[in-house]
Design brief:
The protein is 9% helix and 29% strand. The chain contains 1 helix and 10 strands, in the order αββββββββββ. Strands 2-3-4-8 form a 4-stranded antiparallel beta sheet, with no helix packed on it. The chain has a 3-stranded antiparallel beta sheet with strand order 1-10-9, with no helix packed on it. The chain has a 3-stranded antiparallel beta sheet with strand order 5-6-7, with no helix packed on it. A hairpin with a 2-residue loop joins strand 9 (138-141) and strand 10 (144-147). It is globular, with a radius of gyration of 21 Å. 20% of the residues are buried. Bound molecules: FE2/S2 (inorganic) cluster (FES). The site of FE2/S2 (inorganic) cluster has 11 residues, from loops.
Length: 148
């Protein structure tokens, strides 16, 4: 009696996040499936934003001539891109720790007090910061920007 329903629920669960599992709990045949194995190998379509543990961003999401703020290990990084060259710098401003803005026109600007840094090397262009941004090694792997 529930076979058609269970098939539909199973299909729906497969297409939706694991949180949808509760709606189909009347047909529990395998209680050991926890649904905690998502993440590493999504093949059903594009996965915007953060990829797995090592992926910082899709290369296509990093504007050429600009950049993007991402997070790695709980710390903000600013990604910069010029053609095929992607670099990353710690995005916490050395002055007082504010997360800098993505680069524009080759310059990374801190929105708090206006310090500016070069997008190609993180060097200090304008204070009040007295130091540049620290580069973090990244590389392009396939269509993803990952930690090097
Ligand atoms: S916190 Fe960035 S310039 Fe002050």
């Amino acid at each position: 009696m529930t076979s058609r329903r269970s098939m539909l629920c199973g299909l729906a669960v497969a297409m939706v996040v694991p949180g949808g599992l509760a709606a189909c709990s009347t047909t529990t045949t395998n209680p050991s499936t926890g649904g905690g194995t998502t993440g590493a190998g999504n093949t059903g379509g594009s996965t915007p934003g953060n990829a797995g543990a090592a992926g910082l961003a899709a290369l296509a999401d990093v504007p050429d001539g600009g950049g993007l703020i991402v997070e790695s290990g709980g710390k903000p990084l600013v990604l910069t891109r010029t053609g095929d060259v992607v670099k990353a710098f710690g995005a916490a401003c050395p002055h007082a720790g504010t997360t800098v803005s993505p680069p524009k026109g080759g310059i990374i600007t801190c929105p708090n007090h206006g310090s500016q840094f070069g997008a190609s090397d993180g060097s200090l262009k304008k204070g009040p910061s007295t130091k540049g941004l620290t580069e973090v090694p990244v590389k392009v792997s396939g269509d993803q920007v990952v930690m090097a």
